[in-house]
Design a protein that fits this description.
Layout lengths: L14 H4 L1 H4 L3 H11 L2 H18 L7 H26 L7 H20 L6 H27 L5 H20 L9 H8 L2 E2 L2 E2 H19 L1 H11 L1 H6 L4 H27 L10 H11 L11 H21 L4 H27 L4
Antiparallel strand pairs: 1-2
Helix pairs in contact: 4-15, 5-10, 5-11, 5-13, 5-14, 5-15, 6-7, 6-8, 6-13, 7-8, 7-13, 9-13, 10-11, 11-13, 14-15, 14-16, 15-16
Length: 357
Amino acid sequence: MNEVKEQTGDAARSPEEAGPRAAARPRWQTALRAAGAANASWTFVVLLVLMAGFSAARPNAFLTVFNLRSMTSDAATLLVMGVGMTYVIITGGIDLSVGSVLIFSGVLAGKVMVHLGHGADAGWPAITAGLLVGLVSGLLWGLVNGLLIARARVPALIVTLGSYGMALGFAQIITGGTDVRSIPNRLNTTIGIGNVAGIPWTVVIAALVTLAGGAVLATTRFGRHTFAVGSNAEAARRAGIRVERHLIKVYALSGLLAGLAGDLSLARFQTTTIAGHTTDNLSAIAAVVIGGTSLFGGVGTVFGTVVGVFIPTVLQDGFVIVGIQPFWQSVAVGAVLIAAVFTDQWRRQARTRNGGG
């Protein structure tokens, strides 16, 4: 997918690439223009309409503190993976391995906690060691993906499809195909289901990751290089950007956040839930694309990914509350996904016709 390199509007480029007028533009204006260009605005309107509709249908059940906490907790793990996936897709790549990396990282973290802490009564030293192992294992999978894609020139689709199968297979070999249980109670009661100021810890962590990911993408050199590589890799290389090294960093980031998602899932469910995460990679990709990030690279925002994560979550929760079969969620999410990709293609074709590049 990295072979597909097309110019996008100046909202998606770095200020230096977009010309003197864009270079003089304040960063907050650049961020807002990028948000509008990434189609995030109309998906945000869709999200608001969905919430308004379900709230009108069941005002005493949908828009309640309990239900909002439940929805945000459900979305937290996917949101963490979605931030990393946003960077990958903006570079014009894809990462199919994040769901399996989440499982593998959770399995290793759980095994370390159980081994060092002797089961559910383990203390914080064993918990901390397990969480770090989960993060490092995710980072290593991301580095392997990045090296194979950037240095060995193997297509991202093939590399991450292979690592998807390998990570899941290793997780099943390590566990014998059964979930790791006896995860420490302290991890579950503190991070998994614990709150800070009434907000679940998992939501707080996901929010901090999202804010940091959005700020880095919109305001830093790393973010500008990500857009530049996705817009035109050869132009970025001629401008002095080390494209291969940047791609390795982006895939490493995606793997690291998948490892963090594995830790959060382990904390919340107190088990590895291997069967429950095998399609998380597709959910993360769908959320990023629904949020306006272009599969052709060079365009996207973390804000759009947040919206894209919450549309399926709101649909699933709303359908249950109003008594509609949850199978309709797949139909609705599929329709929104196709509409998002169609809109992206239509905008690119319109720019080409207008000579905007």
